[in-house]
Amino acid sequence: MAVDTKKEQEREELHRAIWAIADELRGAVDGWDFKNYVLGTMFYRYISESLCNYINQGEKDSGNKDFDYAKLSDEEAKAASEDLCDDLLKSKGFFILPSELFCNVHANAANNENLNETLESVFRHIEESAKGKDSEGSFAGLFDDFDVNSNKLGATVAKRNEKLVKLLNGVADMKLGSVTDHDIDAFGDAYEYLMTMYASNAGKSGGEFFTPADVSELLTRLGTVGKTEINKVYDPACGSGSLLLKAAKVLRKDGVRNGFFGQEINITTYNLCRINMFLHDIGFENFDIACEDTLTTPKHWDDEPFELIVSNPPYSIKWAGDENPILINDKRFSPAGVLAPKSKADLAFIMHSLAWLAPNGTAAIVCFPGIMYRGGAEQKIRQYLIDNNFIDCIIQLPSNLFFGTSIATCIMVLKRGKTDNKTLFIDATSECVKVTNNNKLTPENIEHIVETFTKRKNAKHVSHLAPLDEIVKNEYNLSVSTYVEAEDTREKVDIVKLNAEIVQKENKLRKEIDAIIQEIGA
Length: 522
Description:
Layout: H1 2-26, H2 31-61, H3 74-79, H4 82-91, H5 102-108, H6 115-129, H7 136-139, H8 157-173, H9 184-202, H10 204-207, H11 213-223, E1 233-235, H12 242-251, E2 260-264, H13 267-279, E3 287-291, E4 306-311, H14 346-355, E5 357-367, H15 377-387, E6 391-396, E7 410-415, E8 422-427, E9 433-435, E10 438-440, H16 443-455, E11 463-467, H17 468-473, H18 480-483, H19 495-521
Parallel strand pairs: 1-2, 1-4, 2-3, 4-5, 6-8
Antiparallel strand pairs: 5-7, 6-7, 8-11, 9-10
């Protein structure tokens, strides 16, 4: 236990140092805009070190103990043979010449008057190395948000390069260990930490691309109860990929047999997600992240169904809905007989997820609370889900868990292969601790929620297992408060005792007043 505590302290110290570097680097640049530069440079350092280590290890295994790829000239590397390049493209998905490795570009950065052009060229060459290969989709446009000529970095080329030198120095100073020490997680861990910090400082916009680690853990645990492995994991609104990667952490990477799949509409966040996959050592052949509108242009028809679906889709956003005549006949939405309202796409994401859920699968989705009780089309969709026994559980979460919103959200758990015809409602509003301005789920909170979910029993003020007729009687209202009575934590007052005390005080007061009147009269 002492070793774990020490490791945790070292991790926290590393994170504080990393944030200090990242915060100092940005200077006058808005932190939200500058995140792409810090995170992109971290990725550049990671793939450079990963590639270098892979080549060096191969040489050392062949008896060439003193070999160092980073010290070769580009000509020597090219002369090494085409076999090396082909092997790297098959195993790593990309190729970098020695002069373009992070360590070498960083070493010459301070004296390079054309550093912006050098970095632009390096990033282009990395993406071009994957063209025509299986890895092309994973690398195409990956550095698009790393604009070395942006005025945000400085008004002149010299000012921009000055900032880029500081950026390279700062990321080089981050003590992330070495891939040779099998400390790959340090890169992914630091990346997640920085995204958490950027999200918490960005408010609403931060919440749109990043789901806090504690909520991610809960969703994944709910979706994998009783399982040690799954075929595939999918997130229809994957943001920066934190939910997908939590499956790799909970089940281990080899516990997700056939890969990680996600779709994201925002191109910047889409790029962050792909970088996040690489930094967590998910090979290009094991993930497929698409950039497009999931509801109108889904990109994984050939990959569904999925055994695990975890998602925190945007709350109550507008979508095409019945303005698009094709959607009502889309097999994802048509079973309900009605589309989610144009102004509130929440249940469209639910229907999409259900359509792509495997018969033995589970979907755990964060929801805006309004979809649980509003009437109209949303009520009809809820009726379809309940009457067909797809909703396994509704969990009311505490407020203030997410960046940029204080709303107390819910989790809807969907299953196609339920063993009963009942729906479990859990009140988890008290399962949290306050950390600065936000609430947080502790490991104990998560454990208690998962345990309640697994037991599937009635527990006063905590959970209620509702049969179909009870839900029908409540007109398909799925608000947890309808089924689980909140505990009354107000102080109980003994009315009889209180009345006696009041009468006693009144009598005492009367006597005192009578005495004063007598004294005045005398």
